[in-house]
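Entry for the shared binder. Reason: the reviewer on the internal report wants the predicted structure included alongside the sequence.
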Amino acid sequence: MLSWDDFRYVKAIADHRSLGGAASLLGVNHSTVFRRLAQIEGQLGSRLFERSRGGYTLTPCGEEMVRLAERMDEDIIAFERRVTGHDLRPSGELRITTNDTLHIHLLPEIFAAFRRAYPEIVLDVLVSNQQLNLSKRDADIAVRATERPPEALIGRRIAGFSWAVHAPAALAGTRFDASEARRHDWIGFDDMLAGIKPAKWLQQHVGPERIVYKINTVLGLAEAVAAGIGLAVMPCLIAAKVPGLVRLAPPDPELETGLWLLTHADLRQTARVRAFMDFAAAEIGRRRQTVEGLV
């Protein structure tokens, strides 16, 4: 009879298309994976992989086994979410994901205050500009600036996340109009951020010929502007924290996204999740004017 471990081994080989990659993932050596695969194929009386120079490719039988492994994995994760959701004690580990901008300029003070209020909760903060999968328990809570939160998640919009045109302090008092944007040098975004609203605004109002500096993270905008490289559209939250900048225009409503606290529905009644959601919503609410560029 096949065991869950057998499915894990086959899925690991399929994911990495090699025995070595599967061995690294599983924490065993190459020969162990080789022997285990031979045992599984012998037990089934069928080959699960075709071997070639390009790696291990699934046979139809192997594909069916991997699909079953994925369903089993999803069932285990769903069970874990349901069990975790019945935990009524505000203690244990809480995994929170957010992006680098929010982590540096907004959340550390809130995390510190939360730890003082709930010392039995350990925070595991995952900083990433990619959206982690809360359905797979990559994290318990996401703090994100987004227009459209994933439908599988629940939460609340706690503020608007505003952007505005900023310049070096030496240009204080400069009259700015979007129709004259091409008169200035600009700091833009590389292809990784081409889909965000400010990048599209630059494409529309500035054009590539006046973008003299590109960066792949929102974090570096303020420092580049303060150094005098050019103008930039940046979050008002960052500009409020970095000296040497001046805002040339009010926040643009068309660039605003929502600032959200999100979790999975199965976790919403977990005490530590509920405690952080309520606490963070109140703390960010007190900083709302800064986030929305109203100060």
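Summary line for the report: The chain has a mean pLDDT of 89.
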